[in-house]
Specification:
7 helices, single chain, alpha+beta, 269 residues
Length: 269
């Protein structure tokens, strides 16, 4: 009944959840900061997992609003079942690299960096101050993030994966919207940042010409991702070049090379 005993009150549905897009292209100040890493630290210590994020400073962002935000993926990050001792596919590779004092993973053939997270010694002295402890870990993560950016490429698009003890950062080089390379971006956008810990998610690759006639993509260029202009030797500046350079050719063999998929949009060394 209504408040005065009249008609029943009209039910008003709650507004749908709105997730704003986190875009570094529209606001460079939306880079990761202490609150982001402190929140991630709380989840990492509560349930365990790996934090991931990708931020684009240029190019065309193809993701949903939710995917533009930092995410924590819970362990285990594999499909090998409960008998597998690993929490994620590249766990041993990360442990070995850090144990050997390396600043990159030998399994990755593209520009990236890996670093330990230096946690404050006072962390264990705050057993009853969890919120402050998470801020301390968040500060350590933020410092590691900024140090890796400064070392590799201070102001660039990047993907990161991290726990409370290590972080991997990969600088990205998105193509300009409308360029010939942008056609490749539309077919093969950068995989989610979980690829940095060994879970590479990529679209299916269907066989196209010249594979449909029994020939390999890249017979001229030696690359698994190319275009018709390169493979057919069409000179730049000719009438046919512009259209041919936008005809993307992707080898079906690429799906068996996860490190190559990750490296397609890596910033050159």
């Amino acid at each position: 009944q209504g408040a005065a005993g009249g008609e029943p009150a009209e039910h008003v549905a709650p507004p749908p959840l709105q997730v704003p897009t986190r875009s570094l292209m529209s606001d460079a100040d939306l880079d990761l900061s202490l609150p982001d890493f402190a929140a991630a630290a709380e989840v990492l210590y509560s349930i365990g997992g790996i934090g991931t994020w990708t931020g684009f400073r240029e190019g065309h962002d193809f993701r949903t609003p939710a995917d533009t935000h930092l995410q924590v993926l819970p362990f285990p990050l594999h499909s090998q079942g409960e008998d597998c001792p690993l929490r994620f596919p590249l766990e041993l590779a990360v442990d070995r690299a850090l144990g050997a004092g390396l600043d990159r993973l030998p399994v990755f053939p593209f520009k990236h960096g890996v670093a330990r997270v230096s946690l404050p010694k006072s962390l264990n002295e705050r057993p009853g101050e969890k919120h402050k402890a998470f801020e301390d870990v968040g500060e350590a993560l933020l410092q590691t993030y900024e140090a890796l950016k400064q070392k590799l490429e201070p102001k660039c698009s990047c993907s990161i994966a991290f726990t409370a003890s290590w972080m991997i950062l990969m600088p990205l080089a998105p193509p300009a919207a409308g360029s010939a390379e942008h056609e490749v971006w539309r077919c093969l956008p950068p995989p989610p940042a979980c690829g940095l810990c060994g879970i590479v998610i990529a679209p299916a690759v269907a066989a196209g010409f010249p594979e449909t006639v029994g020939l390999d993509v890249g017979s001229v260029s030696g690359r698994k991702v190319s275009n018709r202009a390169v493979e057919e030797g069409i000179p730049e500046g000719t009438p046919e070049y512009e259209a041919a350079s936008r005809e993307v050719r992707v080898s079906t063999k690429l799906i068996d090379c996860p490190a190559e998929i990750m490296g397609i949009w890596a910033r050159p060394e």
